[in-house]
From TrEMBL:
<dbReference type="Pfam" id="PF23622">
    <property type="entry name" value="LRR_At1g61320_AtMIF1"/>
</dbReference>
<dbReference type="InterPro" id="IPR050232">
    <property type="entry name" value="FBL13/AtMIF1-like"/>
</dbReference>
<dbReference type="InterPro" id="IPR001810">
    <property type="entry name" value="F-box_dom"/>
</dbReference>
<dbReference type="InterPro" id="IPR036047">
    <property type="entry name" value="F-box-like_dom_sf"/>
</dbReference>
<dbReference type="Pfam" id="PF00646">
    <property type="entry name" value="F-box"/>
</dbReference>
<dbReference type="InterPro" id="IPR053781">
    <property type="entry name" value="F-box_AtFBL13-like"/>
</dbReference>
<protein>
    <recommendedName>
        <fullName>F-box domain-containing protein</fullName>
    </recommendedName>
</protein>
<feature type="domain" description="F-box">
    <location>
        <begin position="35"/>
        <end position="90"/>
    </location>
</feature>
<dbReference type="InterPro" id="IPR032675">
    <property type="entry name" value="LRR_dom_sf"/>
</dbReference>
<dbReference type="InterPro" id="IPR055357">
    <property type="entry name" value="LRR_At1g61320_AtMIF1"/>
</dbReference>
Amino acid sequence: MADDGGNGDGATAGDCYAHHHRRDIKLAGDSSENLDSISSLPDVILQQILSYLPTKLSIRTSVLSTRWRHVWYDTPSLYFDGPGTFYRGLKADTLNKTLARYKLPKIMSFHLYTNMLDNVPYIDGWIEFAISRNVENLSLDLGESNGRGFHSIPEFIYTSSSVKQLSLRHCHLIPRCAVSWTSLKNLSLHTCSLSDELFAKTLCGFPFLESLKLFYVINLMVIDLSKSLRLKTLEIYSYFEPGPMHIVAPHIHSLKLTKSKFSSTLVDVSSLTEATVEAIPDVDFCMRNQPTNLQVMTLKMLEKLQNVEKLTFGANFLKLLSIAKVHGVSFPMFKAKALTVETTMYEHCVTPGVVSVLQNAPELKWLTLVHIMDSGSGFIQKDDLLYNLDPRDQHCRCWVFERTFSLKTKHVASFLKIILKNTKTLEKMVVRLKDYLEEKCFEELLQIVPSLSLDNNISIVLS
């Protein structure tokens, strides 16, 4: 990077762009002063625009003209990331020069992504720079430093009073001091290491937390949020945990369990109004080694969700519900007014789980059906389903085996008819087919929908 934010490549590209831009303006027959309306904007507006770009691109605007030379110095956000970073790397000397030229005393957002081993000695200094400028939105993705392992977050970050949004990825959280994030409202931890003991300890340090996202948080098995009175949103993506996760969150309103083990226990979610649940293909724990426990876990999970007004069930979760239903589990009555289900929309793939949920939701007004092609490593496979079913049972065989990758009009129409047959209070149904239905078939389905709507007195929307 050359002085004032330019480098050889950037200056050449910028000069070239500026030259052609000025030439186009002249060909238009007007003066550049009249047409270059962007440059005439106040600095504060230009800086706000630049804050939406990676900092590397913001710096390159300095070669456009003398008007733009120092504009980037006071952008409220710094974003050190971009296409190709993983391979070309973020060079320490370049970033150090950039920070040395930065003038604004306060940073609104600071995003840093680096995984280069050579940058490890500088990482804490870069974070300290952001903290010293009272950053409000701090996002750190520290990679694995080419096999070195997660980077331990420096102690001074745990006492920042300015941070309102914090996102940490590939980090060790081992606070030795008392955590004091008194302004923190949104926390996201992704591929981080944090024990149950430390998690409980750190929670006391951010009493105003409103949203918590946990993705692949290693070693965390107990999530006790009973003292987080302001927390309203919890999202968990927990594929790697070695056993069942226990969730105590009596104050949250929204819960999203994605790729979580079906064995996870909802201890207390008594204030829940919205929930999304999807399971991983956890067949070793739930289905093969302890099949009888599946029924118990199913009932416990559904009991915790029966008062939720807005529900979303993923494809794997519905399959596990179906297995439990076939084995005699009685579902509780649901108070859901809106339900979204992800499933395969074929006549013979209306699983017992879907039907039972619909039949036990007497207040349901809005149903959203999302078609998916449930094949691949992310879905429960046929053999694992068959292990828990009687292959002689024709009803069980039909929703396990009869699949086709070609979605046709008749498939969707038959599916919708069966769904409508099992709903009594529905007012609107949204059917999301994405790109799985050919245009011709989609047009045919549009001709069928009006009669389905009229016969069942509901509104049907295709998308």
